[in-house]
Amino acid sequence: MRVIGIVEGVNKADGLSMLYLHLGSKGECRVNGKPAEIFGSGPGFPERLKEGQWQILFSSDCPMEEGHFVAFEKDGPVLLIEEPFETSFKLKPVRGGFLSLSQKAALLRPVKVGVLTVSDKGSRGERKDTAGPALEELVTPIGAVVSRRAIVPDDRVLIAETLRDWSDREKLHLVLVTGGTGLSSRDVTPEALQDVADRIVPGFGEAMRRKTEPLFDRSILSRAIAVTRGSCLLISFPGSERGARQCYEAIGGVLRHALDILNGWEGDCAVHGHSHP
Length: 277
Fold this sequence. Notes:
With 277 residues, the chain is α+β, with helices and mostly antiparallel strands. The chain has helices at residues 120-123, 131-139, 156-169, 189-196, 202-212, 241-262; strands spanning 3-8, 18-23, 29-31, 34-35, 37-41, 53-58, 69-72, 78-85, 88-95, 97-100, 105-108, 111-118, 144-152, 174-178, 199-200, 226-229, 232-237.
């Protein structure tokens, strides 16, 4: 679908061609730096807008659903679809960016995500975890809702128990595991993932090592892997923030497509034909 109209509130000119949507320091919605409310709808449903309110009109007939996301191409914003408002839905930026007329967008189902940090020192409070929060930030554009976070020691059994609980009982779609992928005797994360795996997905680890090796030759020592358990995808990352970011960037472009296939969402109106934003 595409953006076919951008309408500003009362006594303002409509037909604008570009906006910048983002969140303020207190989490408030802002348009072009000013506090605002944003609504979205299909064609032909303009709202009676007040000053400080904006409406985005989309070409698609796919119904918007509360809790789903709108993601825009070309590093555009990602908007959460919130409560209904007359013939529209209220939208909230979860990632800022520029929005323009004719820009392509996709409706995305929410992806339930868990971020597990594996670290002896982190589990004892002796080391601040920065890689886990970095992964939470990076995964947002695919429509992620991070519902589980934990830090556990480098214990193969405990890691595997957590992964089974999150995939089987919590029904998460994606688990990102950071730490424990090296050659130390305490690095057991890949083994824990294999303990719970239905299938191994070798391309994720291969891409991480291939794309990060030119940046840091020791990255070939990483044993990061990815596996599936039911309809959950579990991926391991290095324990450093820089390493986690670089490895995520290596595989982030195909992650949403992988989850769509694994969960049978490919034919849904909400995700059909989208590309990674």
